[in-house]
Amino acid sequence: MAFYLLPVLALFVLAAIHNYKKKRQILTSFISENAYKKLGVRSGREIDFFKTFLVTGAMTFFIFALSGPQWGEIFEEVDVKGIEVSFLLDTSNSMSAEDLKPNRFEVAKMLITGIVDNLKTDYVSLINFAGKAYVQCPLTVDYGAFKMLTEASTISPAEEQGTDFGEAFTAALKTFEASKSDKRLLLLITDGEDQEGSWFNLVEELKKQEIFVFTVGVGAQDGAPIPVKNKDGEITGWKKDRQGNIVKTRLDENTLIQVASHCGGQYFRLTDAAGVDSFLHTLKAFERKTLKQKVKLQKKERFYFFLIPGIILLMLELILSERKLTWRKKD
């Protein structure tokens, strides 16, 4: 930004040249060149050009100093304090229902990125699950990369369909195997239609490892049809059962309430703004401990390499006299 001042410097030089010419015109109008040279001052060309050079040089150095030059590197150790949060995102077909706009799945992803935007140094991971679960993003504090991977999440293919909370919990436990934090929690984001019920077998392990599970209900209780889309993403119909009836997917809050109550967390509905705020408040209330020390790389500030020469040139310009130096001869 400071380099935008360079045009101002050019204007200063032009003004100095104009001022010098004007000064010469005024002097030559009432005094001869020979008479001027006999005065006790330096010649206009000599002093004006030199003083202009000093000021121009000083201003140039100041502009470079203002630009904040940096080179060389220093290392700084930083304590990172936080907890570990694993988001479990339901990617089953029922999450494509459009009772929330644009659909349940997209709204769930927006919830995840919104929560991460409220974090600072907590480690986060993302596990996508349907009938099977996989780690979309391992534990990280790189929130930019995490959000990109969240946005890249898609509904699971047909061969992986179903909804199995147990698969999601198992994958989450594996991500915590190398955990350095004693505060870990899972945030299960789903419409609650678990088809296996295997999650209950993992409750004791979750309690043993002191992992809290919070649940988020996505969708409307009245239910909504599941759209069938073509390769271009256009809706071509609605999912039907074997009798040809349109299948409606409903939010199963009872299961989500049970999961949260058994695992030391709490349940809230995605459409309940107060519930979301309550979760964020709870999240921030967890005690943060030092997880690891990071070495932070920084550039060395070098502005003084330009500031000091600028000050010296400016001082020389100020003390430079227009009177000629004369040496008195000894008698």
Describe the structure.
The protein is of the alpha/beta class. The protein has two domains: 2-69 and 302-319, no CATH class; 78-292, von Willebrand factor, type A domain (Rossmann fold). The chain is 40% helix and 23% strand. The protein is built from ten helices and twelve strands. The strands form four sheets. It has a six-stranded mixed beta sheet, with helices on both faces. A two-stranded antiparallel sheet has the order 1-12. Strands 7-10 form a two-stranded antiparallel ribbon. The chain is elongated, with a radius of gyration of 36 Å.
Distance between the terminal alpha carbons, to the nearest Å?
61 Å
Number of strands: 12
What is the CATH class designation of the largest domain? Alpha Beta
Number of domains: 2
Helix content: 25-40%
Order of helices and strands: HHHEEHEEHHEHEEEEEHEHEH
Condensed summary:
The protein is of the alpha/beta class. The protein has ten helices and twelve strands.
Keywords:
about 325 residues; alpha/beta; Rossmann fold; 2 domains; 6-stranded mixed β-sheet; two-stranded antiparallel sheet; 10 helices; 12 strands; about 40% helix; elongated
Could you outline the blueprint of secondary structure elements for this entry?
Elements: H1 6-30, H2 33-37, H3 44-66, E1 70-82, E2 84-90, H4 104-116, E3 123-129, E4 133-140, H5 143-151, H6 165-175, E5 184-190, H7 203-208, E6 211-217, E7 224-225, E8 227-229, E9 235-238, E10 248-249, H8 253-262, E11 267-269, H9 273-285, E12 289-301, H10 304-319
Parallel strand pairs: 2-3, 2-5, 5-6, 6-11
Antiparallel strand pairs: 1-12, 3-4, 7-10, 8-9
Helix pairs in contact: 1-3, 3-10, 4-5
